[in-house]
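note to self: dont lose this again. the chain is below, predicted strucutre after it. 466 aa total, dont forget to put it in the shared folder this time
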Amino acid sequence: MNEKFDVLIIGGGPGGTPAAMQLAASGKRVLLAEESGKLGGACLFVGCIPSKIIKHGADAFFSYEKNASATSDSKAALAESWESIRNSMDRILNGRSSAAIQQVNRLPITFVAGKAQFISSNEVEINNTRYGFDKAIIATGAHSFVPPFKGDGTKEVLTSEVLFQQPTLPSSMLIVGGGPIGIELAQMLAKLHVKCTIVEMMPSLLSGVVEPEFAEGITKKLQETGIGVYTHSKVEEINKIDGEFQTVFVDADGKTQQFLTGKVLVVTGKVPSIEGLNLEATGVSFERNGIVVNEFLETNVAGIYVTGDVVLGAPKFAHTATYDAHIVATNILRGNISKACFTKNSWVLFSDPEIAAAGLTEAEAVKAGFDVVTGIHDYRVDAMAQISGDTFGFLKFIVNKSNQEILGVHIFINGAASLSGEAALIVSRKLTLLDVAQAIHPHPTLTEAFGLLALKILSELQAQAH
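---
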């Protein structure tokens, strides 16, 4: 064994690097291993950051086209725009990763580029060198899963990781999966002249993810912009024909459909990246979909913790991974005193319109046994929405009727991302309708809808009481 560390961290993404920095700053000797040799993880290189760079570029190109003269060369502008997007991507991603490495280098962290493999519950091998450790954090993230469809085209489908590296865009694309990633990418690509069709196996888009009203609204918006939507449809086969892809699927009516497109993008979910870690050597309990942990994010083996997408059943977001990282670092430093609570998780879907949420959906709250009351604010009556001309959207509260605590906040409007912080605070601090109603929200802003909706539900409850 070469050297022994206080803490081994496998994975240099948002579930690993923040923990490494917190632990090192507190005096722990930390070994941080990252197979790619770069810090930032999937979010930075193949996830949330590159997709938002594409969205920014797609929105800019879409705006340019609306205002361009009839004689403008749209095809040339499109090619130039995609090249510009990819250049921005390279600059921002490499810059952020380099900045993270500089931060790590300022602390007593030993950073090793290489794949880690456990030898035991207190020993690891990286690049043919063995290291000892007292405690460990597994933060290896997740990667796209492609179902085993029939057909010779399956092996050449794109995943979101590969899509961002394409030198050119196809004229058409079939997207398998109508979840958050599929919807975001469909709208971005459509603005860049890619004719998109979404095929989703569940009865609706974003099934189980958003409120039903929001799923209906985003489906309507997709269809209005020429994006095809097939729900309750199952892909059977993907074949390669003369350089194009033929996707065969059975639609909601039981009819067999065949679509010929330039590319096929599969975004049907992610699986944790735990293969090759040799977890068996540690005695850690794990399943195909993640590693089993307790409320402290500790595995069944004392001293081995898990963060981010590898946690079985946890939300798969970069900010949730960072939340996990600080919980685990605190527990390593001070004993198991910090508990994870994923019911207060918040997230944003950068669709058009945007969707943001914090806390429970109505269905989740009912399933959890709460006596639920809900309320909806229609942004068509909102002053700032009217001023901007973007009035399509809603705000919805999920409330525990017994104590008026707001269990969930759901926002569907362009600008929802900027409102998500208040939603997160409401849920995480267990605020009530009265708490929100008594806050003085500035006018005219989209945030004043929070106070108006709280007052509306309070009035309805008071009327029912009489």
